[in-house]
UniProtKB/TrEMBL annotation, chain A:
Entry annotated with the keyword Signal: yes
Signal peptide span: 1-25
Keyword field: Signal
Listed name of the protein: DUF3299 domain-containing protein
Organism: Polaromonas vacuolata
UniProtKB/TrEMBL annotation, chain B:
UniProt-listed InterPro entries: Alkaline_phosphatase, Alkaline_phosphatase_core_sf
Cofactor, how bound (note): Binds 1 Mg(2+) ion.
Organism of origin: Polaromonas vacuolata
Residues where Mg(2+) binds: D139, D247, T249, E387
CDD domains given in the database record: ALP
Residues annotated as the enzyme's active site: S188 (phosphoserine intermediate)
Residues annotated as signal peptide: 1-29
Superkingdom of source: Bacteria
UniProt gene name: phoA
Keywords on record: Hydrolase, Magnesium, Metal-binding, Signal, Zinc
Gene3D superfamilies: Alkaline Phosphatase, subunit A
Protein name: Alkaline phosphatase
Entry binding sites for Zn(2+) 1: D434
C-alpha cells in the first residue's frame, strides 16, 4: 500500500501548521549519530539525541516491512532489512532501529524503500500496547517521504 | 549471520507415531511423547504426554506401560485435557516422571477405536569413570573446515601435513548422524538437544518434544545434562560460547522451549539452571528493557540477578582473567558482546565486523582456560560445554576463511583442555560438530595464472599444487589470508550469489539479499563489481538467504575415560549416553538406593 500523493501533502501540511507560530526547521538527524556508545551494558544516546527529544526532526533510513499490516508503526533501519526478522518479535533487529509512528495507519511502502521521516523525536523505553514491540527511540506523528 | 530467521519459517511438524488408524481422517495427528524408539537414561525426568486425534472419554481410555496401568507404573494419575488449546482433541499429561529400571517399555494408549503404541528403551550406565567431561561443539564444522584449518595452521608438503590439529590425534573417532524427529536436516537447537538430553527433537526445539501445544513452553520436556548434574551430583557445570549465550547450542545445555528464538526466556533459564560458569555474547537479553540496546520485554536486570547470586561478572577479557585469578571465584558470568562475538580472523587480523566497538573480547581458548580454572575448584568435577559457534555463523554466508580461522581457534581451545586433562587423565573430552555444511576443498586459486576469468585460475588435480599461505604464527594462524595462491573452497548448496574467488577483507560476506518483501533472495549486487566476480546461480529454493545445513555425518573425536564408547557410526543421542555413562549418572539403576524423588516410578518388569 503506497502513500497517495494527496495524503502526503495533507499530512505534511499539519506539522507545518502546528509549528507555524514558532516556525523552526526540523533538525536533521543521522543514524550514525544517534548513539554515542555501545557496550556490553547497553547503548547510550548521543547528547544531541537527548537534546532533540520532543522536538521535530528529520531522519533518513530504510522502511522495514511492517510487523502487522494494521500496525500504526514501522521500523526504520540504517541499512535495508528486507525481511522482518521473525516478524512477530523485536528479537534480532539491529540495535539502532528507530520506531516510526505514522500519522495515518497502514500508510506503508512494502518494498523496503529508502525513506525520509519527519516527526517528533521521542527517547526512552516504550512498549507498543498492541504488539508488545519494545523501542528505545521513536519518531511520532510522522510523515514519510520516499527518497 | 542470523540463521535462525530462516528456521523460523519451518512449519511445526507433528508426527503420527505408531499410528494404526486406517480410514480415520483428521487434521490432528496422534502421538505419544517420548516417541517410539526413545532411549531414556534410567532415573532421568521426562514429561509423558499422549495426544489423541479426537476428543476422548477419559473413563474409556486406557494407557498402559508393559500391560500395567500407566498411573500405577508412573506413580501418579495422568492429567486429562479434554479440549487441548480449545481444539476438539484430548490429551493426557504426566509431568516430570521417570523410569528407574532399565529395560524395554511398551506404551499403549487405547480409546474407542483409536490406538497408539510406542516402545522405549530405558538404559542404565556403568560406574563413574570420568571426573570431568568437556564437550566441544564446532558448530556446523564440516570435514572441509577441519582439513582447511590443518592446511592453514600446520602446513602441508609433498602430501604430508607438517603438524596436526589438537583434536586430530585423539584416540577415538566416530561418524555422527544428526537428523531430527521432523526432518533429515537438523538445526543447532535440535541437534544440541540430542547431545544434552539423549532425546531426538525437531528443528527449532530445545529440551522438549514438539507436541501440538500452542504455547512454546508447554511442550513435553526432557531433562538436560545440566539439570541431571545439578539434581544428582555436586559437580559444577560450565557453558561457554562465542555466539550469544542464548543461541541454540549453549541454550541446549539448559533450555526447554519449542522455539529457540525465545532468547529472553532462555536467558532466564540460564539463570535458573545454576550453571556455575556462563560466558559468551548476548548481553542484550540480560539488560532491562529500559536500557537502550536491551532485547528484553521486562525490567529485569539479569546481570544484577547473577551478581546477587554471588556470580563474579566480567565484560572484557581482562575482567574475565581477573575474576578467574581470584581463588574464591566459583561462579562466573562473562558477557562480552550484546550479540554474537566477533571471529578470530576479524579480532586478530582484519579488525572488521564489530571489533572496533568491542576491542576487548576474549578468545575462545582463553575463555576455555578460564572456565576450567574456575570449574576445577569444585572437587567433585565438572561438565563443561564449549562452543565455537562462529564456524557455523560464517559457513552460512559462504565466508569460508572466517569459518576456518574459527576452526583453528577451536583447535587452540581444545589444546587448553588437553593440557588440563594430561595432568590427571580423568577428563573425557569430545570434539564434534552438531551438523555439517555443504562445503569442499576442490583445489587452489592462483592469481598468477593467465587470463582474467577467475574460474580459469582454479587449479584442480596436478594443477592445484599447494597454496602459499605464510607459516602460521605462534597461535596457529597464518597472518595473511589474501595470498596469491589460496585454497579453492566452495559451497555446493547456495542461493544465487556473486563468487569473487577472494577472501572478504572487509566485513563478513552477505551472499544474497531480498529486494522486495515477498520477493526471492537474489545475489547481493554489492559484490557484482568485484574484479573477477561471476554470478553463480544457486540450487537452493529462492527463500534461502545463505548456505544451509546438510545431512552429511559429522566427525567426532574423543579421548579420555568414556571415549571407548566413541567409535563407528553413532546417533547424536548416543553422545548424551556416552557422557552419562562416563559420569555414572545411572550407575545404580538396578538398586533401590538411588530412588529418592517423589514421582519415582515403581519398577516394571521389562519382560513382556
Amino acid at each position: 500500500m503506497t502513500i497517495e500523493r494527496r495524503e502526503f501533502l495533507l499530512s505534511a501540511a499539519i506539522p507545518l501548521l502546528t509549528f507555524a507560530p514558532f516556525a523552526k526547521a526540523a533538525e536533521s538527524l543521522k543514524f550514525a549519530e544517534l548513539y554515542k556508545s555501545r557496550t556490553v551494558m547497553g547503548m547510550a544516546f548521543a547528547d544531541r539525541t537527548l537534546q532533540l527529544a520532543g522536538k521535530p526532526v528529520d531522519l533518513a533510513g530504510y522502511m522495514a516491512p511492517p510487523l502487522k499490516p494494521e500496525a500504526n508503526f514501522f521500523v526504520l533501519t540504517r541499512t535495508p532489512v528486507s525481511v522482518c526478522p521473525f516478524c512477530d518479535s523485536d528479537a534480532d533487529w539491529p540495535a539502532d532501529i528507530v520506531v516510526v509512528y505514522v500519522k495515518k495507519a497502514g500508510s506503508f511502502l512494502q518494498d523496503g524503500s529508502a525513506v525520509s521521516v519527519s516527526g517528533v523525536l521521542q527517547t526512552g523505553s516504550k512498549t507498543d500496547t498492541d504488539t508488545g514491540f519494545v523501542s528505545q527511540l521513536r519518531i511520532i506523528d510522522a510523515v514519510v517521504k520516499r527518497l | 549471520m542470523k540463521k535462525i530467521h530462516s528456521f523460523a519459517r519451518f512449519a511445526a511438524t507433528s508426527l503420527a507415531l505408531g499410528l494404526t488408524l486406517a480410514g480415520h481422517s483428521s487434521v490432528f495427528a496422534q502421538a505419544i511423547f517420548p516417541i517410539d524408539r526413545a532411549a531414556i537414561l534410567a532415573g532421568s525426568k521426562f514429561d509423558f504426554k499422549v495426544e489423541f486425534d479426537r476428543v476422548v472419554d477419559a473413563a474409556k481410555t486406557r494407557i498402559s506401560i508393559n500391560g500395567i496401568d500407566a498411573a500405577k507404573v508412573l506413580g501418579a494419575e495422568p492429567q486429562f485435557i479434554f479440549n487441548e488449546d480449545g481444539k476438539k482433541v484430548s490429551s493426557f499429561v504426566l509431568p516430570g516422571v521417570m523410569l528407574d529400571k532399565p529395560g524395554s517399555y511398551d506404551v499403549v494408549a487405547v480409546s474407542g477405536n483409536a490406538r497408539m503404541q510406542v516402545t522405549w528403551e530405558v538404559y542404565a550406565t556403568g560406574p563413574r569413570k570420568a571426573k570431568n567431561v568437556i564437550l566441544f561443539i564446532g558448530d556446523g564444522m564440516t570435514v572441509a573446515n577441519r582439513t582447511a584449518a590443518r592446511i592453514l595452521s600446520k602446513g602441508i608438503k609433498e602430501g604430508k601435513y607438517l603438524g596436526r590439529l589438537s583434536f586430530d590425534d585423539m584416540s577415538n573417532m566416530a561418524l555422527v548422524g544428526t537428523s531430527g524427529v521432523d526432518s533429515i536436516i537438523t538445526d543447532s537447537a535440535n541437534s544440541m538437544s540430542a547431545y544434552t538430553t539423549g532425546h531426538k527433537t525437531s528443528v527449532n526445539a530445545l529440551g522438549v518434544y514438539v507436541s501440538r501445544a500452542k504455547d512454546n513452553l508447554a511442550h513435553p520436556k526432557v531433562e538436560t545434562i545440566t539439570e541431571l548434574i545439578k539434581r544428582k551430583t555436586n559437580m559444577a557445570v560450565g557453558i561457554v560460547s562465542d555466539a550469544e549465550v542464548e543461541d541454540a547450542t549453549p541454550a541446549g545445555m539448559v533450555a526447554h522451549t519449542r522455539r529457540r528464538a525465545d532468547k529472553d526466556i532462555i536467558a532466564e533459564q540460564l539463570f535458573f539452571s545454576r550453571a556455575d560458569v556462563i560466558m559468551g555474547g548476548g548481553s542484550a537479553y540480560f539488560l532491562p528493557q529500559t536500557t537502550p540496546g536491551s532485547k528484553r520485554k521486562d525490567t529485569n536486570n539479569l546481570i544484577d540477578l547473577f551478581k546477587l547470586d554471588d556470580y563474579a561478572f566480567a565484560s572484557t577479557d581482562k575482567e574475565m582473567k581477573q575474576a578467574a585469578a581470584n581463588p574464591k571465584t566459583r561462579k562466573l558470568l562473562g558477557l562480552f558482546h550484546p550479540e554474537n562475538m566477533d571471529g578470530a580472523l576479524d579480532r586478530h587480523f582484519l579488525k572488521k565486523g564489530t571489533v572496533p566497538q568491542f576491542p576487548e573480547q576474549p578468545d575462545l581458548a582463553d575463555m576455555t582456560r578460564t572456565a576450567i580454572e574456575v570449574l576445577s575448584r569444585n572437587p567433585n568435577g565438572f561438565v563443561l560445554m564449549v562452543e565455537a559457534g562462529l564456524i557455523d555463523k560464517f559457513n552460512h554466508p559462504l565466508d569460508w576463511e572466517r569459518s576456518v580461522y574459527d576452526t583453528i581457534m577451536l583447535s587452540n581451545a581444545v589444546q587448553v583442555a588437553k593440557d588440563f586433562a594430561a595432568k590427571n587423565n580423568d577428563t573425557f573430552i569430545m570434539v564434534t560438530p552438531d551438523h555439517t555444511h555443504g562445503a569442499s576443498i576442490v583445489g587452489t586459486i592462483d592469481d598468477n595464472k593467465p587470463g582474467t576469468e577467475m574460474r580459469n585460475k582454479v587449479g584442480v588435480y596436478a594443477d592445484a599444487g599447494y597454496p602459499n599461505y605464510p607459516k602460521a604464527n605462534k597461535d596457529g594462524y597464518p597472518e595473511k589470508v589474501d595470498v596469491s595462491k589460496r585454497l579453492a573452497f566452495f559451497y555446493g548448496n547456495t542461493p544465487d550469489y556473486y563468487e569473487t574467488f577472494q577472501p572478504k577483507m572487509n566485513d563478513p560476506f552477505v551472499p544474497a539479499i531480498k529486494l522486495t518483501k515477498d520477493g526471492p533472495y537474489v545475489a547481493n549486487p554489492a559484490y557484482k563489481d568485484v574484479p573477477g566476480a561471476v554470478l553463480r546461480t544457486g540450487i537452493l529454493p529462492q527463500s534461502a538467504d545463505t548456505g544451509t545445513h546438510t545431512a552429511d555425518d559429522g566427525v567426532l573425536s574423543a579421548m579420555g575415560p568414556g571415549s571407548e564408547r566413541i567409535h563407528g557410526f553413532m546417533d547424536n543421542t548416543e553422545i548424551f549416553r556416552a557422557m552419562a555413562d562416563s559420569l555414572g549418572l545411572a550407575a545404580n539403576a538396578n538398586s533401590t538406593k538411588m530412588v529418592k524423588a517423589s514421582k519415582v516410578v515403581k519398577p516394571v518388569t521389562a519382560a513382556k
